[in-house]
Amino acid sequence: MIRLYTFNISHFAEKARWAMDRSGVAYDERVLVPGPHMRTIKRLGQGATSVPVLVDGERVIQGSSAIIDHIEERWLAGDGKLTPAEPELAARVRELERWLDAVLGEAARRFFYHHALQHRRFVAPLFTGRGPWWAKPFFGIAFPVVGERIRRMYEINAETAAADAERLLAAYRRLDEMLAQGPYLVGGRFTRADLTLAALSAPLWRPPEHPTRWPDMALYPEELRHWTDELAKFRVREHALRIYHDYRRRA
Length: 251
Hints:
Blueprint: E1 3-7, H1 11-23, E2 28-32, H2 37-43, E3 53-56, E4 59-62, H3 64-74, H4 87-116, H5 120-128, H6 135-154, H7 158-179, H8 192-205, H9 222-231, H10 235-247
Parallel strand pairs: 1-2
Antiparallel strand pairs: 1-3, 3-4
Helix pairs in contact: 1-3, 1-8, 4-7, 4-8, 5-6, 8-10
């Protein structure tokens, strides 16, 4: 059985999960709990302890972009591929994907966690959702320790969160200009760039097709609600929700 190791809350995991679902290949998703997950990932022989990780026979692939590459190589063909066949378009898509990973992936993660980790009742269910039976009692005890480790791992503090907020605003301005040119980011069709944009921005827009059940926006911390309102002015929200509706229904 092909296995995909994820976190419930991880937008990078959703990126890989979406690509797997698109392939139509049966797989077993193992939703891990942050903290205890490290033992599982290390057992797979990976130096880093991040998810997602895909195990396909003897092959172990870590990271959402590498997983999409593997899925395309193994199971997708023709129009089903997420990377354009044209070299110039493929290069543009990959460059945009790397940029989205850095800004909507890493910067948004730091900003989100900075505010979310201050609200245990809000964030703990996101860490434990769809996980093992012991996840909730574990977080009932270990949440302060796990939260502090996450802050250290990603260098999360008020200063980095403020810088990331500015990076997100600049990114949304750039994306708004790009989306004004057409319904897709590159080449006039759905690509891994659109998938990446939608998956990595999902925690803000909470698309109904997403497998994670996000809290009602009224329950989000005030600072996150404020930034959601600010970013909702751009085309990214409409684009992400449309891409989910049109291409993610199987979730």
